Amino acid sequence: MNEGKQYRIPEPSLKRLPRYLYYLKQLRESGLLTISGPMIGKALNCDPTQVVKDIAFTGASGRPRVGYSIPELVNSIENALGFDHENEAFLVGAGHLGMALMSYPRFADYGLRIIAAFDCNPEKIGRSRSGINVIHVDKFADMAARLQVQIGILTTPAEAAQQACDMMVASGIRAIWNLTPTELEVPEELVVQNTSMYANVAVLLQSLKLKDNQRNL
Questions:
Q1: Which tens digits make up the pLDDT trace of 139-153?
Q2: Using alpha carbons only, what angle is made at residue 24 by residues 22 and 30, rounded to the nearest 5 degrees?
Q3: 69 and 41 share one domain
Q4: Is 62:1 a contact under the CB 8 Å cutoff?
Q5: Number of structural domains, the chain?
Q6: Span 91-106, pLDDT tens digits
Q7: What residues pair up with 136 in beta bridges, in sequence order?
Q8: CATH code at 9?
Q9: Strand pairing partners for 116?
Q10: Angle, to 10 degrees, between the axis of helix 37-44 and the axis of helix 11-30?
Q11: Are residues 166 and 135 in the same domain?
Q12: What does the alpha-carbon distance between residue 157 and residue 164 come to, in Å, rounded to a whole number?
């Protein structure tokens, strides 16, 4: 497989590429060596032309009548997404959601490692989950500077989200994964990725309702 130039990847493609990657890793583990774009599209029930376009953004290109080398394609996608090296992160908000994220073992496979969690609740300070300690939030700035952590994960209650965000910004955090429903006010140069579980639930329930309505026609 020839390695071509990487391009700026549009957000829709960024959201699809991890799905391809997960599937390709499964195929690699099974011993399969090559695959085509149409085969990926058929397996994942998506447009094969779009699959090829998405993969092209990673700089990967296949061979005529052969397709892509699966190990090389995995490497290309991981490199394009930044999954090929470890990005350390701090988590703020060690409640149920925060603890669940601390327990999730697969983040490392996708380039993210939570190295510490922070909270202001005395009952949570000193707890540990999967080797990640919960530390008082007063130590956040010092540890962020000392360890040069640039990514923050926000799982606080909604009413505390902006204050926690401001603390992250003041401490040099450059990117925030916001899992709260709060619309954060941040400097223009800061990267924020909002993940709203409420919005996803709304889409799920609405889709279910539409399916029920169609079935009852």
A1: 999 999 999 999 999
A2: 110
A3: yes
A4: yes
A5: 2
A6: 999 999 999 999 998 8
A7: 119
A8: 1.10.10.10
A9: 90
A10: 100
A11: yes
A12: 10
